[in-house]
């Protein structure tokens, strides 16, 4: 009986090891790739980054209400697609409801280890219910959310595989209307800036994040608006070129200043717009001027625009209006050395490959 017991124990341990190994493969920890999911929240924003080491960062969380629509879409990607059991980091780009609306309800469903934001103001002029909404956010974060300032970096680890190390960093380049120092090569498009009226809303205070993974780079600026974009990028370019850019503010024309978009010269852009929100013709005209641009992905077809006023249908994740929308995401996946990346629509979409400069 003793031998039988030992044999049974050995088999049980071996089976557990196999299960653990399988779980790691499902979670994507063995392929060394960095994944970025642009989740459809109907014209809000929710971007999930999963590192090769399985660290996770969710930036923004879409609208609340609507029967938990956006919350459930985010949870589906977190749990069923990315195979995560928790979130290491959840960040808020700025205090508009389509960007932080589900942070509290997500924390009630899945563990969130760290909350990041630009600091919580006492009030928000454009939201009369802001103070009430902050009660839920403070409770979810246990009043321990960490304030991000321009120049800060998020604590994510480099990726090491078979002795090779790929540097990984996420740097804050704007926050609370402040920007990183304007050092770097002269911006050849600085003279194109035409200042707009001052933006008093929280859009202008957006947290902008620059992710670098080896040679790959990705910039997301929340709903940052025109004049702060210019403040960041003139007279010099402190960002350099980026491979991927999340089109700012859902593609609205009060953002996406040419003095930002043209010098960063992205290969791929992703627009988190809605069926009737964003995708401004002026923004699309600026995108078409980007010298190195190879593809623009939209989360939605704008039903108010003609086909030639937006990206081709093959690069659009959701073709229908909100009532019949399936909430398909766009996924970017970066090679372990950062030298190439793919972009696809949904789980079953055909990946298109791009080479990093």
Explain how this protein is built.
- It is a single chain.
- The protein has one domain (31-355): Ribonuclease Z/Hydroxyacylglutathione hydrolase-like (Metallo-beta-lactamase, Chain A).
- It is 23% helix and 25% strand.
- It has eight helices and 21 strands.
- The protein has helices at residues 2-26, 69-81, 97-100, 103-107, 130-140, 226-233, 258-264, 281-288; strands spanning 34-38, 47-50, 56-59, 86-91, 111-117, 146-147, 159-161, 164-166, 168-175, 178-179, 185-186, 208-213, 216-220, 236-237, 244-247, 268-271, 295-300, 316-318, 330-334, 340-345, 352-355.
- Strands 6-5-4-3-2-1-19-20-21 form a nine-stranded mixed beta sheet.
- It is globular and about 45 Å long.
- The termini are far apart.
Report the uncertain regions.
Answer: 1-29
Per CATH, the architecture is 4-Layer Sandwich
Spatial gap, N to C terminus: 64 Å
Mean of pLDDT = 91
CATH topology: Metallo-beta-lactamase, Chain A
Total beta-strand segments: 21
* Sheet having the most strands: 9 strands, mixed
Blueprint of the fold:
Elements: H1 2-26, E1 34-38, E2 47-50, E3 56-59, H2 69-81, E4 86-91, H3 97-100, H4 103-107, E5 111-117, H5 130-140, E6 146-147, E7 159-161, E8 164-166, E9 168-175, E10 178-179, E11 185-186, E12 208-213, E13 216-220, H6 226-233, E14 236-237, E15 244-247, H7 258-264, E16 268-271, H8 281-288, E17 295-300, E18 316-318, E19 330-334, E20 340-345, E21 352-355
Parallel strand pairs: 3-4, 4-5, 5-6, 13-15, 15-16, 16-17, 17-18
Antiparallel strand pairs: 1-2, 1-19, 2-3, 7-8, 9-10, 9-12, 11-14, 12-13, 19-20, 20-21
